[in-house]
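Q: Here's a chain of 537 amino acids. Please give me its 3D structure as tokens.
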Amino acid sequence: MALSLDTTPYALIMRASAAVRLTALMISAFAVSLLLLIATEPSPVHAAYPTGGGIGKVYKSLGGSSGRLGPATGSEHCTLIQNGCYQSFRNGSIHWTKTTGAHATWGAIRTAWKKSGWEKGALGYPTSNEYKSGSETRQSFQKGRITWSSSRGAAVILAKATASFSLKGAGYGHGVGLSQYGARGMAVQGKSATQILEHYYDPAQVTSTTKSANANLKVQLVSGKQSVTVTPSAGRLRVHVGSKKIESSQKITVERTSAGTVKVSVNGKSYQSSWISVEWQGTRYWTGSQKTTVAVSSAQNGSTGTYRHGKLEIRQLSKALNVLGVLRVNSEYLPGIAEMPASWQQEALRAQAIASRTYAYRNLGSLKSACACNVYDEVTSQRFLGWSHENASGSSPWRQAVAATQNVSGSSVKSAKVVTYKGSLINAVYSPSSGGKTNSAAEVWGSSVPYLKSRDDSVAKSKAAGNPYASWTATLKQSTAANAFGLKDVRTIVVTRTGSGLVKTAKATSTNGQTSSLTGAQLRSKLGLRSATFTVG
């Protein structure tokens, strides 16, 4: 019998279905094999990472990959502060430093440590693994511990605050611009006033100018007082009240009235006006051979100031008297500047005279609204002591330095030396000394000035400079520190410093974990420190 091929549609369908089923079975078998193969490979998150050294020993002691930490999820990294290393695991991490050794953290305690700032925070690195203490679980850190209990969870407890802090510093003042002890040291080395100034104010230059040579300067002598007295010595004074002119050889009393006027009592009589002026004999305002000085109460930081030159203007400002000295910059103001000992080398004194003149010239023109003056008589501007300094024993070298930096014809100054940058007067700030490098204006006041950059001031620390502020120490009491930072107590103070050594920020942490930060300048002001260049021990 011959075989025949069934070609009916049904038969074709049945043959096709069998082929499909066979193909499906083959695909299923391949898929199962592939899944089994994949299942035997480790997932990336649980890949095998080596552990070694101190971290490896602790990991092994805790049971390795089958222990509390579980398998490693990354390699060891050594990029932390204090040259610290760490390695992460599925359930925690291990941190190591040479000082603390290796210790593991996990769970709620690790979370609390993370919130505190890890190793950069208030606690520092762990110094133990977790341990039991009664019903609590604890872990010790460099600067405290973290405790955990089921009733209150995790709590950070910092170490107790110390009784005091030791500060080691250098320099005196803001440290910007001319260093006065540096100038002295350079003068001993044979440097000229020009060389000294052009070092500290580089790239500014010393030049001579005829401008403002005989200009008047208004110096605030007294403020905030309701009454002052003016007493003439060896001569007479005269008071201008409106169109009246009253002379006296006796003390006069000047008061501010409740109506805001100025009342002056002269020779038993009283006169009032919106302001008055006082002159005395032997000045350019009242010529004659009699050389008179006047003593002004409450001047010079609350004491009594004595003045030979110029005249006084007494007005009212901010509901108090405002006593101003009107003086010519070169011939009457500069001789009374008391910013550098007159016994110092002449070139250092000349550098100071030029810097002081430049500062005064720059402040001519518009009066400051806070004082209705050009400059103050205190270190807010420059310390001006008037006749008590100009006429003091041994002050002759200072007067010589002032005279040597100007050209005079008769009683008139024709020209004088100043410091300029690109044709303009510089802001000739100065201070006693820095910490070895002067500070830039940007570091101290936030604005960059081309001629107020950080300069080498190591000469200020030399033996020749005789600088008592080359280095200094101070003890900061706990209560003082807490008050300065506005915290209940202070456990640690961490400072960051600029390239010149100036403290940029000082961050205090209390025993309860609260923090407060101040700039170095703010802390210097609050604590009365010599400078803002210091470290905290």
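Q: Can you summarize the key feature?
A: The two ends are 114 Å apart (CA to CA).
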